Every structure is written in structure tokens, then in C-alpha cells.
Amino acid sequence: MKKILVVIAMLFNILIFGQEKSGAKQFWENLQKQCGKSFIGEVKEGAANETFRDKKLVMHVRNCDKKTIRIPFFVGNDKSRTWVLTYKNDRIQLKHDHRHEDGSEDKVTQYGGTTTNSGSSMLQFFPADQETRNLIPNAAANVWWITLDETSFTYNLRRIGSDRLFSVKFDITKGVPTPSAPCGWKD
């Protein structure tokens, strides 16, 4: 009975709104609901990495507009990283914006990729793009993915053909105080 009601609701939405929202659009709207909020994370895979071990990890969904969401990712006192998500033509692009304390771009920045399909409301995959391959040849086999549900946001990286795996999970049920501006931003 429940499945029948779900199908009827989907058909109703299609009749009223013209079509069901794509996975990318649903994911985007769900992520925008977190705008302005900050959360503590925990490394789930790749904990041996000295960059992240024993450091406080905070993400801040700091800036959202219709087409762009910027999420600074702080590792201890290091405020150099921002995940930049862009929504265009029912696809989502992920870029990694790395900056120095003075706001200038790091030499390794703007790498990432774009989804190859609309994905799902809770999962988006980003295979490395040509810009990434040109900038970091070894990263040509990178695949990033983000999962988002009612309780967590998880950022993941896998380098296909290697044992490289990194995953950090943020509990989005418990906000934390908003951190100060990341490198290159003004409060």
C-alpha cells in the first residue's frame, strides 16, 4: 500500500509540475538547506594521513546562491580549503579551491570534476576532469563523491587502481559555532 501511495504522489507531482525533480536537483536543494550551518567531522578512512590526524575538522556551508555553494573545510587551524559546488544543466561540479593566508591561490587548486549524470538525491559522483589531469597527472584516476542524508554529509575520495581512500563524515544533526572566515574571505 505504501509503495502505491508513493507512486501516486510521484505521478501527481509530474502532472502538476511537469516532471519529477532530478536527483541532482533534489541533492542541491537538500544541501542548500544546510547553508549558514557548521558541523564537526571525523575521518572514517585515511586516518593515517598526518594532515588530518588528531585535528579538529569543521565544514561550514558558508555561501549559497542559485548556482553555487561554497563549503570551507577547516583542518585544525588550516583554513586553506574550500569545496565549491556548482549546479548547471542538471549536473553538479565539485572544485577544490586552495588558498594561502593572504587569499592568493595555491599552485594546486581548482581540481575536481563534474557528475556524468544527475545522480541521486543522496549521492553525487565526481570523476576527475581534464583540468585535474593536467594539474595533477596522478589524480587522473580520482573519483570524489558526496553523500547527504538527514543525519550526515560525507566527503570521499578514491584513486582508482590504488589503495588511496579518504572519507570524512560530518554529523549534520549537531551544529557548531560558525568559524571565522577561511583564507581569501572576509567576514
Helix/strand-derived category reads alpha+beta
Give the CATH H-level superfamily.
Calycin beta-barrel core domain
In the CATH scheme, what's the topology name?
Lipocalin
Note the main sheet.
Answer: 11 strands, antiparallel
How many strand segments? 11
Radius of gyration: 18 Å
Q: What is the overall shape? A: globular
> If classified by CATH, what would the architecture be?
Beta Barrel
Helix content: 10-25%
Q: Tell me the number of structural domains.
A: 1
Report the span from N to C terminus: 52 Å
What is the strand content?
35-45%
Summed up, the helix count is: 3
H/E element sequence = HHEEEEEEEEHEEE
As residue ranges, the low-confidence spans are none
**CATH class type:** Mainly Beta
**Can you give the mean pLDDT?**
90
Could you write a compact summary of the structure shown?
It comes from Flavobacterium xueshanense. The chain is 17% helix and 41% strand.
Topology, pairings included?
Layout: H1 2-17, H2 23-32, E1 38-45, E2 57-60, E3 63-64, E4 68-75, E5 78-88, E6 91-98, E7 111-114, E8 123-127, H3 130-135, E9 142-148, E10 152-159, E11 165-175
Antiparallel strand pairs: 1-2, 1-11, 2-4, 3-4, 4-5, 5-6, 6-7, 8-9, 9-10, 10-11
Task: Output the keywords.
187 residues; globular; alpha+beta; Lipocalin; 17% helix
Structural write-up:
This protein has 187 residues and is α+β, with helices and mostly antiparallel strands. The longest helix has 16 residues, at 2-17. It contains 3 helices and 11 strands, in the order ααββββββββαβββ. The mean pLDDT is 90.
